[in-house]
UniProtKB/TrEMBL annotation:
Protein name (record): Fatty acid desaturase domain-containing protein
Native source organism of the sequence: Mikania micrantha
Sequence intervals crossing the membrane: 47-68, 80-102, 114-134, 175-194, 222-239, 251-271
Pathway entry: Lipid metabolism
A GO cellular component entry from the record: membrane
Signal peptide: none
Length: 381
C-alpha cells in the first residue's frame, strides 16, 4: 500500500521507491456506500462533550504556554532566553494549529449537531488566529467537492510544464529551497488574501476576505463581511496590546506563534495533497471518488497530538468530512482493508518529505498512452 515512506526498495514496474509507487487510477472496485458500511455507526455521531473538551484542551495548553513564557522567559539570562523563545513559538504555534483544526471541523459541521453552534465556535476560534472562517468554509467546501480536479479544485493547484518560472527557473535545488521558504513563511496569508496556490478565476478579485469574490455566491456574501469584522477585531486587539505592552511583547507572545502556526498549516495542507504517487485529473477523467482518494496520510510524530491526529486521517476525512476528529482514526482502520492500494500513507519524516516534494513535484503532465495524452496527470521535475 505504499506505507513504507523511508524504504528504498525499488518497485519492479517503474523502478521507483515504494513511497513513490503510483496509486491506481482505474475505477475502484468499491463504492462510497461500501466504505460507509464498513465504518462503525458511532463514528458518525458528534459528541458535544468531546468536542468542547477538545477546545478546552487547546485553550488550557495555549494559556499555560503563554503564562510560562510571559512569566519566566523574561527572567532568564539573554543566552537562555534566545533559546527559550523559539521553543515557545514552536509549541504555541503547534497548539494554535490544533485550535485551527477545531475551527476547520466546525466548518464541516463535525463539531456538534447544531449548525449555529458550529459556526459560532468556528467563527470565534478562527478569528482569534487571523483566519477568515466563513471565507475558508465556503472555498473549502468547493475543494472537497472537486478534489484533484485541475479545472475546479480550490487549493494547491499544480503548475503545468508551460509555466517556465517553475519548470525551468526554479527547477533546481536553489529554486526549490526558495520556494520552500516562501511557502512556509508567506503561504498562509497570501492564500487567504490573494488566493495564492488556489484556483484561477477569469473575473473578479479572488480573495477570502472580499465579499464579492467569485469564490462565493450571493447568499454567502454577508457572512464574508462578518468574517472581515472578526479578523479586524482581533487585529484591533493586537494593536491595543502593542500600545500597552509594546511591539516586542506582542511579537514574542502572539506574532511569532502565529507565524509558526501558519507554517504548520502550509505543511499539513501541502503534504496531504502533494506527492509523486498521486494523480490529478482533468474533466475527461475526473470523478469524485477517485479525486477524494488521491490524498496522502502523513505522520507528524509527536505533533499528531497537537493537531488532533488529523495528520494521519486525511483520506477518510475527504471521504466522510463530517466524522469528528476523535473518530477518524477508527474509521480509517475500518476502511483500509477495502481501500487496499487506493490508500496512500507515507511516514517519511516531515522535513525530509516537504523537501522531497518541493524539489520533485514541480509540475504536472499527463502520461502518453498509445501516442495520446490522457487526462490523468502526474508530478514531474
Amino acid at each position: 500500500m505504499g506505507a513504507g515512506g523511508r524504504m528504498n526498495v525499488a518497485n519492479a514496474d517503474d523502478d521507483k521507491p515504494i513511497a513513490h509507487k503510483r496509486v491506481p487510477v482505474s475505477k475502484p472496485p468499491f463504492e462510497l456506500s461500501d466504505l460507509k458500511k464498513a465504518i462503525p455507526p458511532h463514528c458518525f455521531k458528534r459528541s458535544l462533550v468531546r468536542s468542547v473538551a477538545a477546545v478546552l484542551r487547546d485553550f488550557i495548553i495555549i494559556g499555560a504556554l503563554y503564562y510560562v513564557a510571559d512569566t519566566f522567559i523574561p527572567m532568564l539570562p539573554k543566552p537562555l532566553a534566545y533559546v527559550a523563545w523559539p521553543v515557545y513559538w514552536f509549541f504555541q504555534g503547534a497548539y494554535l494549529m490544533g485550535l485551527w483544526v477545531i475551527g476547520h471541523e466546525c466548518g464541516h459541521h463535525g463539531f456538534s449537531e447544531y449548525p449555529w453552534l458550529n459556526d459560532t465556535i468556528g467563527f470565534i476560534v478562527h478569528s482569534l488566529i487571523l483566519t477568515p472562517y466563513f471565507g475558508f468554509k465556503y472555498s473549502h467546501r468547493t475543494h472537497h467537492a472537486n478534489t484533484n480536479s485541475i479545472e475546479y479544485d480550490e487549493v494547491w493547484i499544480p503548475k503545468r510544464k508551460a509555466d517556465k518560472l517553475y519548470s525551468e527557473v526554479l527547477n533546481n535545488p536553489t529554486g526549490a529551497f526558495l520556494v520552500f521558504v516562501f511557502k512556509i513563511v508567506l503561504g498562509f496569508p497570501l492564500y487567504f488574501v490573494f488566493n495564492l496556490y488556489g484556483r484561477k478565476y477569469e473575473k473578479g478579485i479572488t480573495s477570502h476576505f472580499y465579499p464579492y469574490s467569485p469564490i462565493f455566491n450571493d447568499s454567502e456574501r454577508f457572512q464574508i463581511f462578518l468574517t472581515d469584522l472578526g479578523v479586524f477585531a482581533t487585529c484591533y486587539g493586537i494593536y491595543r496590546a502593542a500600545a500597552v505592552m509594546g511591539i516586542p511583547w506582542v511579537i514574542n507572545i502572539y506574532g511569532m506563534p502565529i507565524l509558526f502556526m501558519s507554517g504548520f498549516f502550509i505543511l499539513l495542507t501541502y503534504l496531504h495533497h502533494t506527492h509523486p504517487s498521486i494523480p490529478h485529473y482533468d474533466s475527461t477523467e475526473w470523478d469524485w471518488l477517485r479525486g477524494a482518494l488521491a490524498t496522502v496520510d502523513r505522520n507528524f510524530g509527536f505533533l499528531n497530538h497537537a493537531f488532533h491526529d488529523v495528520t494521519r486521517t486525511h483520506t477518510v476525512h475527504h471521504l466522510f468530512p463530517t466524522i469528528p476528529h476523535y473518530h477518524t482514526f477508527e474509521a480509517r482502520e475500518a476502511v483500509k482493508p477495502i481501500l487496499g492500494e487506493y490508500y496512500k500513507y507515507d511516514d517519511t519524516p516531515i522535513l525530509e518529505a516537504v523537501w522531497r516534494e518541493t524539489k520533485d513535484c514541480i509540475f504536472i503532465e499527463p502520461d502518453e498512452v498509445n501516442g495520446q495524452k490522457k487526462g490523468i496527470y502526474w508530478f514531474y521535475k
